[in-house]
Amino acid sequence: MLKNFSFLSVQEIHFGFGAIEMIGESCKKLGLKDVLVVSDKFMVSSGMVDRLGTLLKADGINYQVFSDFDASPSIAQVEHAAEVMKQMNCQGVIGFGGGSSLDTAKAISILVNNPLPISQYFGINQIPNKGCPMIMIPTTAGTGSEVSDACIIRDDQTQIKSGLRSKYLISDISIVDPDLTVSMPPSLTAATGMDALTHCIEGYVSNGASIMTRLYHREAIRLIFKYLRNAVANGNDREARYYVMLGAMYAGWAMSVASLGACHAMAYPIEGKYHVSHGDANASLLPAVMKYNALGNMELFKEMAIAMGENVEGLNLREAAFKAVTAVQLLKKDIGIRTIKEFGVVEEDLQDFAEVVIKNTRLLQYNPRQVTVEKIKDIYLDAMNN
Q: Would you say the pTM of this structure is higher than 0.70?
């Protein structure tokens, strides 16, 4: 069927080794003289924020740093951060770090020009006003937040994550420098890479996908499958770092239109209860969710298998489709992704988890196969042992 589609995009992207050198020029382009750098405590203690600060000062940009947030930023933390931003009289915000830093920066931006509480903006296109100017600089290759329209915040009371999606959450300028990922340890490289792959796979088969989003997601699948193992095994492989980061950016870019599905919805309760990283939670569930979804659109799963480098010649459609599932299972094993049981999940959790997941219509509406509470529990059970 020939259908119409839309596509959202960052206004400007600087990609490649040394791209971080563009930070001063980017601030000037947006008219920023005083900025808030949002970066986690590790980034501050490691000296990477100082490096960014040196570049900013060299171009006459004043900056202050905010790092008072968790790996999963909470409602209270981002609302406090927005108040800090106003008190500091900063004109714009720079997100510098992994997904938590970028999401916190996005939340701060919109709260500058939109009233509290942020919870009223959960969902799709609920933010009435554009925030202050944003520059996103990722230091991991995974979330794609630097080019996406999404922001994920944790509820302080329930510990469940909720999402905001809006064109106002797309950064004005993204600076994507693969050099910043070279120091990532293997476990983080694996988790973030699998997060990017989850964006590709869920986006490719999403009910919201288009010809254009599948173009980017198909290429991202090819790149991640070709280079992620190398990036995990040898972090100094700059070619692998370059292409995994490019794949992660493509994945996040197209995700803004295609959206995601059951895997992300099922990951959130695990992250909330067991404080598992977003990438690890998605990776641990991905093959089981794929196994369930494959029957929902076997032709698309066959296409993904081919992008993964699988030989499907002579196979029937079902066999070719499930080649994608086995390819992801092997990749997960090769790079050391654990099962949800190893994270602490027990069968007694599954009913409560499933009841939370089924309410996430923001994501489940895009899943290629309908789910029920019982089906969700079955997928969790499969993921516990595989």
A: yes
Write the DSSP symbol of residue 344: T
The pLDDT assigned to 159 comes to 78
- In contact, 244 and 37? CB cutoff 8 Å: no
CA distance 68 to 84: 11
| C-alpha to C-alpha distance for 352 and 230, rounded to whole angstroms | 38
Question: pLDDT tens-digit profile of 78-118?
Answer: 999 999 888 888 999 999 999 999 999 999 999 999 999 99
Burial environment of residue 84 by CB neighbours within 10 A (0 to 12, 13 to 18, 19 or more): middle
Name residues whose C-beta falls within 8 Å of residue 306's C-beta, 6 or more positions apart in sequence. 312
Average pLDDT of the segment spanning 205-234: 97
**Which tokens hold the place of 15?**
């990609």
> What's the first-to-final CA gap in the chain, in angstroms?
36
DSSP at 74: B
Per-residue pLDDT tens over the stretch 309-342: 999 999 999 999 999 999 999 999 999 999 999 9
Q: Amino acid letter at 313?
A: E
Other beta carbons within 10 angstroms of residue 166's beta carbon come to 21
Q: What is the mean pLDDT of residues 181-193?
A: 95
CA torsion 12→236→215→20, rounded to 10°? 0
Q: What angle do CA 45, 184, 44 make, to 5 degrees?
A: 15
**328-to-9, 185, 292 alpha-carbon distances in Å:** 29, 21, 14
State how far the Cα of 82 lies from the Cα of 36, in Å rounded to an integer: 10
Helix ranges, the chain (H): 23-29, 41-45, 48-58, 75-88, 99-113, 186-205, 211-233, 238-258, 262-274, 278-293, 298-307, 317-334, 350-357, 361-364, 373-385
b/e code 29-55 from CB counts within 10 Å (16+ = b): ebebeebbbbbbeebbeeebbeebbeb
- The tokens 């070719």 sit on which residue? 320
Average pLDDT along the chain: 94
